[in-house]
Each structure stands twice: as structure tokens, then as C-alpha cells.
Amino acid sequence: MSTRRQLIQRIPALPLIFSASAAALLAACGDKKPAEVAAPAPVPVPEPVAAAPAPAPAPAVAAGPLVDEKDAQAAALGYVAVAAKADKAKFPKYAGGQVCSNCSLYQGGTADQGGCPLYPGKQVLANAWCSGYIKKTT
Ligand code: SF4
Questions:
Q1: Which atom of ligand 1 sits closest to the CA of residue 79?
Q2: Whole-prediction pTM value?
């Protein structure tokens, strides 16, 4: 079996027809010596970018009024200000020890009250509970 280089070299008229490009064609066969290999084009080095300004601290969750157990959303979700008073018949999901402060949705950290995305603009008590409870895993 002939290589492309050998095949090209066997065509006698090829250098006459393509005198300038024949050499390039042969070189393209990949049979070049390492010294003939052109150095790769330099990779442009990006200009250093000025450090971006530090992001502004996240705005504190706006304090709002406490959720009222009688609010429509609160009543629908069985929100109670004291978790132990959860309606276990209506919300059998409730288990002792579940409170807002160990719910993954609670935004109050270690505070006595904080935000909850289920009650936008309002605060829930750390010891409250509702059926939206999701156990915090971390
Ligand atoms: Fe509390 Fe979680 Fe219900 Fe929000 S979803 S009120 S944090 S139990």
C-alpha cells in the first residue's frame, strides 16, 4: 500500500502543474521532519482585567409583620405560632420537634423570627410551624 506521499511523488506532471503547491501538498502529507514543522501560532494572552468590585452584601430580609394564624394563606397551610399546637388531625405530616427554625425555608437564622417564602413580606416565629415544613438538612 502506498502512502499519499508516495502516490503524489509518482505523478510525474504534478510538480510541473503545481510547482509551487506540490511542495506544500507533500508537506501536508504529514511526513515532515520535526524541524520543518511550523511553530504554533502564539496564543494571545488576555489583558488582565481589573478586579471586579466586591458584590454588595445581600439586602437583609425586610422585617414585616408577623404572620397571623387567621391569614388566608396561614390558615390554608395550618400555620400555628406554637408548633406543638399544630392540628395533627388535619396535618398528620406534623411531627414533634418540627419548628420553623429547623425548616429549610426559614430565613431567620438563629433569630426568634424571620422570613419565609411562603409568606412574602411577613415574618414567622422560630417556634411556629406550617404544613410547608421541610426539614433542614444542613
Ligand atoms: Fe415555618 Fe417552614 Fe412553614 Fe415557613 S414553611 S412557616 S419556615 S414551617
A1: 6
A2: 0.59
pLDDT per position as a tens digit, 63-78: 899 999 999 999 999 9
Domain 63-138 class?
few secondary structures
Tell me the CA–centroid distance for residue 106 and ligand 1, in Å.
Answer: 6
Instruction: Give residues (CB < 6 A) around ligand 1.
Output: 79, 100, 103, 105-106, 116, 118, 124, 128-130, 132-133
Atom number in ligand 1 closest to CA 131: 3
CA angle 76, 77, 83 (to 5 degrees): 130
Output the nine-digit C-alpha cell for 82: 406554637
> Contacts by 57-62 with C-beta closer than 8 Å and gap 24+?
61/107, 61/114, 61/115, 62/115, 62/121
